[in-house]
Amino acid sequence: MTPSPPPAAPPPRLGPRPLPLHLMAAASAYVTSNAALPLLKEGLMRWSPALGTDAEALRERLAKASAEALAAAVEREGRRRLDAFLTGIERYRDHPYRRDVQDPPAVWASGTTSLRDFGHGEKSGGTLPVLLVPSLINRAYILDLSSRRSFARWLSANGFWPFLVDWGAPSDAERDFDLTEYVTRRLEPALESVLSLTGERPLLLGYCMGGLLAVALAQRRQASLRGLALLATPWDFHADRPGQAASLSAVAMGMEWLMSATGELPVDVIQALFASLDPVLAERKFSAFAALDGGSDAAQDFVALEDWLNDGVPLSAPVARECLSGWYGDNTPARGAWRIAGETVDPAVLGLASLVVIPAHDRIVPPESAEALGRRLPAAAVMRPDAGHIGMMVSRGVETTLWPRIAAWLHARK
User: Could you tell me the end-to-end alpha-carbon distance of the chain, in angstroms, rounded to an integer?
Assistant: First the structure.
């Protein structure tokens, strides 16, 4: 008997992506710390007004410290923190965990987009179909991250028949797609598939960027839907950080040569944009991970989430332009200038029952941006959970706190 070949080794992890950027940000912060000490001691550093009293107290203490001893202590601490960061990266890359759930079967597909059935093809009494629309930027399995952290499987176990739109990476078929084509040539046929399979109008639930696409789909197909839930969905892109929105728009112009040449905005460019929201977040996360027991649930959850974060997909060039230049640069949704198939997308015209979930600690979608959507939707129910943008989907405890609240609203749409 011919022996079976050994199982293939899992592919090496690439994260945190883009690795050179994260390494340079951490190294630069620590290497230049001593250079900033004179400015700090002289009170020339700019602090947040909220830190004024503490900053002045720190300056007074530094003024009394030995310059040599202080410089040596700062260098030691910088080396310690950098070592913890690098240790965390190494342990993450070597961790044995790999995603422990299989994608359910696709019941519809077109191009690289598929529709995954979490109800296993059978409807039991009382279940409600739900069409889940995630962001185009990251993989859809943030809603099905692991055996312990799966919003889609939780819905399936609690009276719903979930269908998840899995966008996949753009292929030649989607290379020239803009958002209109994603809505009309992908989401609408996916909705038709759900209607055909279940015989019922589904609830429509959009997450992050998927929420914007869900609003556009709902406006086009109100009669085919039972209700609309929008989780961490932006609307007014200038509501909280207009300067940051302008910088993201500038990226689109700066990357035009690359998008024209390749037809897409690459994954690492997108990841760098997210990193710009908090340049030292990676250092904090991986330093904390280095201190965890590698066999703990917390360590496994960290690895599962980081694997998803680093498993991004590029955006087609037309979509990247529409999002960065249109949404962020020109604030087209809030100004009533965003159009799908030539029609202005306006939540105010929706007659569907609607829910807007606005995480209080969302760093990716500022709460003020999502609040604008809640105000625009007629009589929308609004939830403001004590959670973050990604945490609302994967944090420990959300399955007993936030998710039941969302489910209660969905169940009320029977």
Answer: 58
User: What is each CA distance from 373 to 187, 222, 393, in whole angstroms?
Assistant: 21, 18, 20
Span 286-341, pLDDT tens digits: 999 999 999 999 999 999 999 999 999 999 999 999 999 999 999 999 999 999 99
Tell me, yes or no, if the pTM score tops 0.70.
yes
CA distances from 259 to 39, 168, 256, 315 (A): 42, 19, 5, 10
Note the pLDDT tens digit of each residue in 238-247.
998 788 888 8
Q: How far apart are CA 102 and CA 146, in angstroms?
A: 9
Q: Which residues contact 77 (CB under 8 A, 6 or more apart)?
A: none
What tokens does 124 get? 């039991």
Domains in the chain (CATH in brackets) are: 19-94 (no CATH), 106-240+314-411 (3.40.50.1820)
Helices (H) and strands (E) in the chain, counts: 19, 12
Cβ atoms of 183 and 341 closer than 8 Å: yes
Q: Report residue 19 as tokens.
A: 């690795």
Q: Which position has the token pair 């039941």?
A: 404
